Amino acid sequence: MREIVLILILQLCYVPMLALRTICMVKKLTLLTAFFGFLEAIVYVFGLALVLSGDQTTLAMIVYALGFSLGLIVGIAIENKIAIGFRSVLVNIKTKNVLLIDELRSMGYGVTVFEGEGREGSRYRLDILTKRSQEKELFELINAHEPSAFVIAYEPTRFQGGYIEQMMKKQMNQKFNFQLPKAEKPGWLKKATQSVASEVKELVKHEDEN
Predict the structure, then answer these.
(1) Most Cβ neighbours (<10 Å): which of 51, 175, 185, 208?
(2) What is the DSSP letter of 184?
(3) pLDDT tens-digit profile of 89-109?
(4) Within 10 A of 67 (CB to CB), how many other CB atoms are there?
(5) Closest by CA position to 133, among listed 87, 102, 91
């Protein structure tokens, strides 16, 4: 029975790492992919050795498969919780809601406004790029101002330039910005030594001229 429980625990550790490694690989997050892959390999070796060294009972195989299924659910739940990456949100509204646009920009969202022609007249589209961790907050704000808005959200795999890149560079500069230590002012002894040396040079120069 102890081995059965251990198999379930190992699967609940191994499969979430597998799911996170796959998600990070799709998002092209190299370091996180390597990190989760390393942990995944270690747990996999221990779990596989435990299963293969046992009696291969039907219960052990069922628990192994059950742990794999539950581990996938846990891995997806963890990824949704940490919310890695960005979301591109397209909001289609009937009128140019200036209050919504201004509030979005004041909260730090990058917003681009387009005007188009729909079936029932002019439509406005807001193109918003946000962190996934702020996606829920963004949808609540949109629903508060435009409950009938047509909203599409998708995940960009790569972006370059624009407001978000400038903001990220600014945050990185603020994070790693530090002032170099100022040069120490010379002490009184050093000042006195420099003054005496200067006077001696002037005196020698004056004697040479005479």
Answers:
(1) 51
(2) P
(3) 899 988 888 899 898 888 888
(4) 22
(5) 87
